[in-house]
Write the structure tokens for this entry.
Amino acid sequence: MGKYQKTNDFNEIVFGRRTVKVYDPEVKISHEEMTEILEEATRAPSSINLQPWRFLIIESDEGKEKLSPLVTYNQKQIKTAAAVIAVFMDMKHIENMERILNKEVELGYKPADIRDLQLNTVKPGYTSMSESELRQFNTLDTGLVSMQLMLVARAHGYDTNAIGGYDRSRINDVFGLDKERYPTVMLITIGKGAREGHRSYRLPVDEVATWV
């Protein structure tokens, strides 16, 4: 159990989520609880369950100092958050397919013949995809896990903010990650808001949804 009481209250998780600009710098998140948050977040769906997401947890002062020059408009968030979770996609995640499928057979989640069918039909299709096609799939999947991570964090009593405005051309080099294999997706700050984030307006459903 973390410092804050977890909740299963749907309204609190969904409607209570706010974009936070300043965090309480005294609030830290233990590695144990951060692991729990990530485990729950990675229950998000992904194409053929290949889970292309990869996370870099930036929590130390040294890590934040390295990140800070790459972020233009969110310095207070970076400095005061308990951590910044940098989300990347693994362009070679197909390498894990056989291991994932074998484990699913071992656990009784699917029969061996379905595993063999997927390896013989789906895997060749993935390996023949163009980089742009693969990136499309991975962008969708990493977006799903990122949103789920923010909702899970809220359930744990923490606040978050997604950041897309940072130097995407340099972050891999700064943190020593292969930029061809691990393209950057977004940054997510996490911590306890020093004050409640502002409410924001949403367009009505009848303007954004169509029934046919």
